[in-house]
Amino acid sequence: MDKRQLANSIWTAANEMRGSLDATDYKDFILGFLFYKYLSDKEVEYFIDNGVPAEELPVELTNASEANSHIYFTNARDNLGYYIAYEDLFESWLSKRATLDVADISEGLRRFDASVHPAHQHLYKDIFASFLSSIRKLGDNASAQAKKLRAIMNVIKDVPTGSGADYDILGYVYEYLIGKFAANAGKKNGEFYTPHTVALAMAEIVAHHVAERDAIEIYDPTSGSGSLLLNIGQAVERRAGRAGSIRYYAQELKQDAYNLTRMNLVMRGMEASNIVTRRGDSLDQDWPMIDKYDNYNLLRVDAVVSNPPYSAKWDRDQAQSDPRFTEYGLAPETKADYAFLLHELYHLKDDGIMTIILPHGVLFRGGEEEKIRRHLIEKNNIEAVIGLPANIFFGTGISTIVMVLKKKRSANTGVLFVDASKGFVKAGTKNDLRPRDVRKIVDTVIERRDVEKYSRVVSRDEIRENDYNLNIPRYVDSSEDAEYFDIFSTMFGGIPHRELDYFKDYWTSLPGLRESIFEQISPTHSQVRDGVEITSAVQAHESVADFTQAFTEAFEGFEGALHTRLIENLHAVDLLTVEADIRAEIFDRLAGVSLVDDYEVYQHFANAWAGIENDLEVIKREGWDATREVVPNMVVKTKNKQKVEVQDGWLGKVFDFELVQKVLLADDLEAIQELREKNAVLAARLAELFESVDEEDYEQGDVSLVNAKGDAFAAAAVKAYAKSLKKNREEVTEGSLNETLVSAAKALENQAKTAKDLKTAENELEGKTITAIASLTDEQVMELLHAQWITGMVEQFFAVPGVVLSRLIDALLALESKYATTLEEVNTQIESTQAELATLMGKLTGSDADMKGIAALADMFRGKN
Length: 865
Description:
single chain, 865 residues, alpha/beta, Ferritin, three-stranded antiparallel sheet, 34 helices, 11% strand, EC 2.1.1.72, methyltransferase, S-adenosyl-L-methionine, transferase, DNA_methylase_A-5
């Protein structure tokens, strides 16, 4: 399995196994075991790399009671920062299977804690505390607890935790699981995790600012899972094409989140000296300091990134003379948002940058917060304010912002306001940023763009005029225009020029199109020309053909260039930078194309890139022959009332089976499609026959002809009934129940045969596909890679002009329809209808009283008093 399949498989199995256990507790076991496996495998790898034969490890890695004076204990402790005896290694636990008990695990974790080198206490001290304290929640007794622990270990046993490329898999799986647990943790329990897309947008903004520096120090005072820090590191790598020298400072108050921070940072393979962590309250005790003994010696960093708890309480009184706040003011006691912001700003270097997530209220609330805003504006610290979509964070649905600040900025540069609240996709019960949304935010902030209804650079003078209120709608109106109804057009027809002018970008980019569709009937109104059908007129116009041709020419050679870059030169692809390079090329090609939203095109690439990158990682890690491999498709099923993982067919390690069948086994695939269509026809015929049977005929003697749900025939019963008719030579007349049942029996027999043939054909095709993948030539591999990576993406690119034009056509048709019928015509139709009704009523007969009433009603319809 690739990393995505592996992560999803682990989550599915883990979630099925969790049962009633709270997700917040369960994550301690899954993530804790995964981290312990990493530490165990790292130690084994270390000793083997240093000349200790694997078969000697059981003897050399003695248990803790004998280890303190042992050379291997000292060696591991000095170089790794910890020591794990052989009997306590994850693989040793796994090998014990049913004999592994709770004491083996709990004592092993305590021995690990005792073995940690003093210099690494900040990384490992009490890191399994949450794990140990939660064991009792796994069951009522030690036996039940041990059984659950063994099952959890089995779920994560296949995650690779070695060095090199395995870090990418391990990091991906760990981040994926953290996100899943956060999403399932319930209200107020998912705060330890910042959604990946938000973290990515913040990290890209920061990385742009610091990417050229040789050494970088970054800090998160409320680090949670550590994902914000890690995203900055990865973003710097993508921009610089190198890992760089990054030192991470992480502080977290909550023990379980602090453990996550340390695990996540350690498992990314960073040098221990580049990870500095502390458990504590950032506001209560200022940190970080330069020396490890917490002697106060202020450390200023290149970047700070954070997602602090929203509107938390803090001890304002003790901060009265704190230098972090004296220049700007003290945040309210019940709303610490600006206290976190000022703490972080204080720790920035003069050329540093910070991004912080805050509740929307910090932009406009009064009192002390207004004073702080005033100082931040006057001291020119605020670079940008970015409004995010609502309901995007776990644990809260409130509106949030990202604020970008710098210690020193160029004078009179203003504040960039970005309303990114409209760009998102629904992801389950939450909203999430799409790649196009992330990219647009990042590009807008870096380039400080003014974009209509999206972003605007606002001067300090304008902010002063608004009393330092930073509420985004004051500066960027992203609301939809209210629908306009023209009184003249409503009464007499025609389309107002004001509404046609809404499409000025189209008219400018498609010269002559407006005039070919509309004729002017007054200085202010036009109408659709006689005989013109809007759809055809747009599609046939010369300027539209030119627009489509310009787009096509913009991407001339792109498909071939992508093939050369990603497939022919696959070995040279730099996974750190290639996505950014291709993205830049796409935007460069679109630079001269009007009407097209660059980010819409980019989204098609981003959708494809997720799969391309995954395949590239597999091939570069495992070699070209990985394209010729298949792996078991493992799924979780219930067996003997237990959730177990079983194989359900096969998957291509790189290639999708359906793609291979479509390209190399088209005839077989067509034959199967014919059987599927035949099966669908038979199913429809049976449904038709079933509907024709009256309910009173469902029972024939002691036999029921319908299934238990009562929505279809009971196959065996209908077949037996039809057989008895034939045996007894009963008459089957046209249109009778017997004829219906005989037809149904025949259709059921054909359906069963077709289903059998289909299953046989599908099994045979699966076998042929496995054989085809195993015997792929290099040329076929390249052909399939092109089809899997590039063909669909490019087709989506070239469909974009059609989508753009369809939007115009739909809007113009709606506008034509809006004023197609005037109120005058409606009134005439009403009068005509009333007159016809009055005439008809005059033909009615009845009593004198009835006729008098009918006459009065008829007069009313004729318009008489």
